[in-house]
Every structure is written in C-alpha cells, then in structure tokens.
Specification:
Chain lengths: 261, 261
C-alpha cells in the first residue's frame, strides 16, 4: 500500500480514543516503536518545548510511518515553513500552539492543506504516499485526507472562538492546553475549577456541532480525566517521555535508598 | 588545582551504596542533571549495548562531572583506545564487560591507570581537572586515585577466578552481569536461582577479602535488589532511561484506556 495509513485519524473517525505522548527527550527514530509497544496511537515530537530541529523530527516521523503510530508534531510558532517542512518530511499531523484568532487557525489550514482547502506548496513525492508517483491532483487529495491539523486553544479569549474555529474546513482537532489555559485564567493547575470545566464545555460543544474532534493534554488524574473524556475529548495527550522517565527513576531511587543494610 | 571529586568513590568509602541511572536512549548532555534530580549517584553511559560513540559518551560525561553525578562508561571491548579515550574525555570510571581471568583484568588496569600502576598514556588539560594544566607528577597519582575500574564477571569461569581478579592491584569493583551470567549457566533470567546466589556470594567474599566493592547489574526486581544489597552489593545499576519511560508510559496508557472502557 503506497498511502501510509493514519491510524490515529482512523480511530478518531470511529469515535475511539487516540492516546499519544509528548516526545521531548528521546532523539532516535525508534520513538514510534517505543510508543506502540507502550499502547499508544500517536507521538508528539515537541518542537515548542524541546530543542529538536526539523531534520531530527522528520526522521522520527518517517520511521513512524511504517509502525502504525501516527506522528503529530507540535511546531514552535506560526510560520508556514514550520508546518509545511514537517509535513514534507513525513509528519501526519501538525499541532499549532497558542492559536488566538480565527485568522491564525485559517492560516494553519492554509499551510497544511493543498488546494482547494488550503495553499500548501507542492513538494513533489512525499513519504506519506511512499514517494510513489501520483498525478498532482491525487497527491493533493490523498495528502489532505492523510494530514491532521490540530489547533491549540490556550487562553480564555481563544476558548470564546472555539465555535468559529471548529467551523473551519481543514481543522481536524481543537485541543485545550490545560496548563497554559489555566495559567491564563489565573487558576494554574486547577483542572477542576469551574472555569476549566466551562472551557472544556465550550470547546467540546463546538466540536460536536461541527463534527470535529476535541483534545486534551496535561490532565492525568482520574477525576478530571474521566470528566473531560466524558465530555467528549478523544485526542488525548497522556504525558511525556521526560516526565515518565523522571517519575519512574525517582520511585526507583526512593526505594533503593530506603533499603536497610 | 581543581580535581573534580569522585562522588561515587567517596560514597563507597564511607560505607554507602552507589546507585546508577543508565543511558540507553538518551543522547543529550543534560543526562547528569537528570540523574542527580532523580536521586542517583552515577551515570552509566553504555557503549556495549548502546550506539554511543566515544565523542557523544565524552560530551555527556564531561558535563555530568560538574553535577556531582559520577560519569562511568561501559566500553564495548578490552581495547586501550576505548578506555583511554573515554577517560581522557571526562569519565571518572570505566566498566569493562566480559572479563574472565586475571590476564584480562590486568590488561584493563594497564589501559586505565597511569604508571606505576598501569601504562595509560599521559595527557593533560582534562575535564576531571576542569581543563586545568596539571604537572604530570601530580596528575598521574591524583587521577589514578580518582578513576574507578570496574570489571564484569559474566561466566562461570569468571566467578571461579573472582578471588584472583579481586586481588589485581588497580581493580576497584567486581560486577556480575546477571543476565549474561545466568544465560551462560543455562538458567537465563533466573536471578533467584541458587547458583546465581552462590555466584554472588563467591564474588562478594572475594571483594571483602581484598578490600574491593561488589556490584550488580541487570536485576531490577525490588525484592531481589534488597536481597543482594543485604548480601553485600554496594555498587549497582538502578535502571535505565528507556525502561523508566516505557514502564511509566504503559501504566499511563492502561490507566487512561480503563477510564473509557
């Protein structure tokens, strides 16, 4: 099959949950294999909060294509070259952080989708289609179907735009960045605060109305995760490699240092 | 003069246990900082089973030095150019795998220690001295004292030779590679087998007799770790980055999926 499946998109389309984690520490192309082995559907190489360049992330993305684990890259800013070069390099989705207006969301679609949906520049053969030779119309259509655009809402003002952003053709997922949103609202880390609950309600309602997927990240406790998944969140950022590692390592050293001898 | 203290050696001499954080997938020079924050004493940079080259191992080691975590490199073989170059590059100790007899142990010491103990080639402006130039008459004895030489016993033959190997001047630590030893004994993975326990006892007795330290690698079951510590193990692997990441990632994915089912 020359078109590499986007397993995350397939699962989300079926109404299932898609679990992923942030990659901020690992640097080898086997990241997707590691994530798959741990029960994840997608990886999020994080160019916003890690030092990766486009080349390194693209190698992770290309290796992921044959693993059945979808790579969705969080780009560091809002430039067309962030999104398009990663998609040219093998990413099957792009997460745009800190989207604060409908115009910014529309611009993100423009960078990620070929005409007629957007204005992405034609790169020639692409890894998502196994570099197979298609006519240009098929390359654009198949790529548009394969690529996901994820818009992060991280301020109270952005939440108010959720309905308009969800209405945009080419936007696949609206995703609350729980840490930054709660900080913006003056309630950092209070994921059970009524304003957080209201924010999730506004976003999930907008997604339901327009047939889009709702996403959440940064929430891992049973009470809050259950609430927001119950409200409809299906694109779930379940944590990050660095946090997994330091958490596990601290538990181990605490045990070892407690042994009496 | 600014010889960087060898924290692990000091801890062992004070009767403590030195625990390590292992690098398998990490590729960045913040490894020492991470190990320190997670409560470990030394950093295990593994050139035997990792794809690190000498250059990357030394970059990680030289930065770790200043964190107070002791960088120790497991070299892939018994060549002078691995041992000498990683020690020149900032390692405060080396682990030689698969050492079977006194001749092999003596060769390792020869490469790791300057005259009169060994025949390590003299150099200067070393990371262990914070790049200061130090007169050779001071450098050699100080760095000989500062550098840990660890030899791994991984066959029944090596265990039989434990007493003679422990007697070799310049060997500081004897370490059982439990996976390989058990495989060689025909009892792969049986870390609680009476023959495994007997091998540890033989090594620990040899270390006690000759004033050396006993070490363990490959055992991460908490009950067994505790048992071998009580028998006398003082220098041990505490886990590696990949294992910590995957362990915590698996737990998190199982937790979140259970919320949906």
């Amino acid at each position: 099959m020359t078109v590499k499946p986007n397993r995350l998109k397939e699962k989300l389309s079926a109404g299932e949950i898609g679990l992923g984690f942030s990659v901020n520490y690992l640097r080898s192309p086997d990241v997707a294999s590691i994530a798959s082995a741990c029960g994840y559907d997608w990886i999020k190489p994080d160019m916003e909060h890690a030092t990766y360049d486009i080349d390194m992330v693209s190698q992770m993305c290309m290796a992921a294509l044959d693993v059945g684990c979808t790579s969705v890259v969080r780009v560091p800013g809002k430039q067309h070259f962030h999104a398009s070069r990663l998609l040219d390099g093998g990413a099957q989705g792009v997460i745009i952080p800190h989207v604060d207006s409908v115009e910014e969301a529309k611009a993100a679609v423009d960078w990620c989708k070929f005409p007629p949906i957007g204005h992405r520049s034609s790169p020639g053969p692409v890894p998502q289609l196994s570099y197979a030779k298609y006519n240009l119309a098929d390359t654009m259509r198949l790529s548009n179907e394969n690529i996901m655009v994820v818009i992060m809402l991280e301020t109270w003002d952005a939440i108010q735009l959720a309905d308009d952003i969800a209405a945009l053709e080419g936007v696949d997922v609206l995703h609350i960045g729980s840490n930054d949103l709660s900080a913006d609202m003056g309630i950092p880390g209070q994921y059970d605060h009524e304003k957080m609950i209201e924010s999730f309600k506004i976003m999930t309602d907008a997604c339901k109305k327009h047939g889009k997927v709702a996403g959440m990240g940064g929430i891992y406790d049973e009470e809050n995760a259950t609430r927001y998944i119950g409200m409809g969140c299906r694109f779930i950022n379940a944590g990050g490699d660095l946090g997994f590692m330091t958490g596990g390592a601290q538990q181990r050293s605490a045990f070892l240092n407690s042994v009496k001898y | 003069m600014a010889l960087v203290p060898n924290h692990t050696k000091e801890k062992l001499e004070a009767g403590g246990i030195a625990f390590c954080f292992g690098l398998r997938v990490g590729r960045t020079v913040n490894a020492g900082m991470i190990a320190k924050t997670c409560g470990f004493d030394w950093l295990f940079i593994d050139m035997e089973h990792g794809s690190f080259d000498v250059d990357l191992a030394c970059q990680i080691a030289s930065v770790a030095l200043e964190t107070g975590v002791t960088p120790i490199v497991r070299v892939p073989g018994h060549q002078h150019f691995h041992i000498g170059r990683v020690l020149d590059g900032g390692a405060q100790g080396i682990i030689a795998p698969h050492v079977n007899d006194v001749e092999e142990a003596e060769a390792i010491v020869r490469y790791a220690k300057f005259p009169p103990i060994g025949k390590r080639s003299m150099t200067n402006n070393l990371p262990q001295f914070q790049m200061e130039r130090v007169p050779g008459k001071d450098l050699a004895p100080q760095l000989n004292d500062n550098t840990l030489v660890i030899v791994m016993l991984e066959t029944p033959e090596a265990i039989e030779n434990a007493d003679a190997i422990a007697a070799v001047d310049g060997v500081d630590i004897l370490m059982i590679g439990t996976n390989d030893l058990c495989a060689e004994m025909g009892i792969p993975g049986e870390f609680n087998h009476e023959r495994t326990v007997a091998a540890y006892q033989a090594m620990i007795d040899a270390c006690n007799k000759h004033g050396k330290y006993a070490a363990m690698g490959g055992v991460y079951d908490h009950d067994l770790m505790e048992m071998y510590i009580k028998m006398g193990v003082r220098f041990m692997l505490g886990g590696a980055d990949l294992g910590f990441i995957m362990g915590a990632a698996q737990k998190r994915s199982e937790f979140l999926r259970a919320l949906v089912d």
